[in-house]
Amino acid sequence: MARSSYLFTSESVSEGHPDKVCDRISDEVVDLFFREAAKSGMDAAQVRVACETLATTNRVVIAGEVRTSLSDKAMKSKVKSAARKAIKAIGYEQDGFHWKTAKIDVLLHPQSAHIAQGVDASGNKDEGAGDQGIMFGYACRETPELMPAPLYFSHKILEVLAGYRKAGTHGCAVLGPDAKSQVTVRYEEGKPAAVTSIVLSTQHLDASLTSDDIRTIVEPVVRAVIEPVLPIEAQDKDWHVNPTGAFVIGGPDGDAGLTGRKIIVDTYGGAAPHGGGAFSGKDPTKVDRSAAYAARYLAKNVVAAGLADRCTIQLAYAIGVAKPLSVYVDLHGTGKVDEAKLEAVLPEVMDLTPRGIRTHLNLAKPIYAKTAAYGHFGRKAGRDGSFSWEKTDLAGALKKAVA
Length: 403
Fold this sequence. Notes:
There is one protein chain. By secondary structure, this protein is an alpha+beta fold. It has helices at residues 18-40, 72-90, 113-119, 149-167, 211-226, 251-254, 263-266, 287-304, 339-349, 354-361, 395-402, and strands at residues 6-13, 48-56, 59-67, 93-94, 97-98, 103-110, 133-140, 175-188, 191-204, 238-241, 257-258, 310-317, 326-330. The chain contains eleven helices and 13 strands.
């Protein structure tokens, strides 16, 4: 029997965290190649990107496999420009990491022909999955966005803080781009009841600040910003703001960053399983991205349809094979419909082949840079097609299918 009263904690990291800088650059490359394909008349479904980024003190290395309409020379020039723009947008203009002076190496090369033969459609063969793997989707009623509360609040704290930092308001001009948050929520009867502790470590720009200054200058600014973000009644919150004191050297200058190292931050904060595959830097033929989006889309629609209060969905794929090998549903004892029936119905209401997912969610577009920070899930679907997997437009079809 599941516990009904407990504490649960999730963390988030800001867009200036070194790993998130790399996620952003990798996703800017994906968007770049989709935009260039549209300009050249290349079929967007033929774009291939598997882009990894490493960042350290004033150095960025971008490597991976791609298929693009650009010549090698133009590709490298445009990728470097996209990386610099991303670093500038995040806010890095520091001696140890600066958008203008950082050395950027581009080591992208054409996609392996052996991978391409499994993924590309040919003759009677449909597009295959870009790799083997398992992907999970999850939704619950803890927030209006149907996300776990600890992760949702961790994201919102940093997103709001970054907005004020960039605007230079609410005293946040003293802060730098790098930050981490952590929120602990107390659950009673299985539902979020109160926030019990908050950890926030944020970079600041004034190297002269002492630990006492942190408490008198930085902490009040941070607390004033955080308080309105937490709608759950907070009782006796245990605050930890910059618990180690000064935090001036941040971002890739303070710690090397890599694409794909924040997969739990990107998804459900540990409240649900994770298949292990990262998202950023990958085009939608890579099912560790697109099928994870599809699984979230289905799980969210199951909950939105009133078929359960919690839903976990697992999909499994083999490289080069179009249809999923398995579909698994767990409603955690909250379901109003048989789980086996849902497992049979889900592939009927949505084509779960790579082509079907890409088409249904309209994924072959430059929509990925904005997913790189503050979570891939629990976000508002945009008019540009971004976060299409957050729509609940399948709820009616699901209700009808299981009736």
